[in-house]
Amino acid sequence: MIHPQYRPRRMRHDEFSRRLMRENTLTSNDLIWPVFVHELDGRTPVASMPGVDRMSIDELLREAEQALELGVPVIDLFPVIDPSRKSLDAAEAWNPDGLAQRAVRALKQRFPELGVMTDVALDPYTTHGQDGIIDDTGYVLNDITVDALVKQSVSHAEAGVDIISPSDMMDGRIGAIRTALDDARHINARIMAYSAKYASAFYGPFRDAVGSSGNLGKADKKTYQMDPANSDEAMREIALDLDEGADMVMVKPGMPYLDIVRRVKTEFGVPTFAYHVSGEYAMLKAAAANGWLDERKCVLETMIGFKRAGADGVLTYYAPQIARWLKEA
Ligand code: PBG
To answer: Which residue's alpha carbon is nearest to atom 6 within ligand 1?
Structure first.
């Protein structure tokens, strides 16, 4: 009989030594919860995201209180705008009394200690569902879009938001937003840049939730979001956003892009986040609903995968559920 000199299984023999050598942990501190807020009363379910509802501001306040109790540090707001308020120039995006701005004010007033983050991009506000302002060929124009994003960001900061999160992928927007925030004395408004955001098919359910998929039709976002085949390009995007003043960077989607998360963390060593997007959520929900996967185990394994890859935190629709599971454990 051959006795191996080194037996990795020895350390796996008992729970105490498995715990002792565990390299990564997941806590509620790692979670950012994206939520959909609408202008109607009450809640409406998002069909392709079971368990996720669009909520009125009142409902949101109820949920926010629970999230706070569960230790979720940040809520990320996504407004669902009435079609009558959508336009070609997306002017509703910087309406000081717009839905996002009202939601920010309500949350910060009730729960000052809860971090509030907003998405900055024009897609909830445009009649065509693109993240920016288009020319007559449908091409998204960079620099006038950046001007609009600056107005949107400043209006969120005036409403009291803690973190601005540009998800539009326009060139130069982080620097322009940082300068405008500083000029308006919002020096502590943080920026989490969607730096490496890919033109992904996994955003489908999100577009249903905010009602941009119908407007977008067969169009895509490939002239601004990145090609899923690229990795070096992501490093250039990260470098640019950091240089322009991003406090945190994000990789999106999540699971299919863990190599990017690892590269960002290793090469830059900055606060790095991953977005476990709507399509990833929908896949887990669908498999769980069919009894094909153990939802709790698969979700927690997914989250520790993000941590192992180097993420400091994860944006996930599962955030309050995960926090609840962690509390029970
Ligand atoms: C919009 C935006 C999208 C998501 C976050 N912000 C959709 C898109 O780029 O089309 C996707 C989030 C998700 O799928 O969960 N700029």
So the answer is: 167
Contact 59, 101 (CB under 8 A): no
Q: What single-letter DSSP state applies at residue 201? A: G
Determine which one of 86, 108, 151, 197 is catalytic: 197
Q: Is 15 annotated as a binding residue?
A: no
Count of domains observed in the chain: 1
Q: Residues 200-228: what's their mean pLDDT? A: 92
Is 267 in contact with 235 (CB distance < 8 Å)? yes
Inside any domain, residue 17: no
Gap between the Cα atoms of 154 and 157, Å rounded: 5
Q: In angstroms, rounded to a whole number, what is the distance separating the alpha carbons of residues 81 and 100?
A: 9
Other beta carbons within 10 Å of 188: 9
In a domain, 6, yes or no: no
Pocket test for ligand 1, best of 117, 206, 276 (most atoms within 8 A of CB): 206
Q: Judge whether 128 and 221 are in contact, CB under 8 Å.
A: no
Q: Domain range spanning residue 307?
A: 24-328
Let me know if residue 53 belongs to a domain.
yes
230 located within any domain: yes
Task: Please write the tens of the pLDDT for every residue from 194-204.
Answer: 999 999 999 99
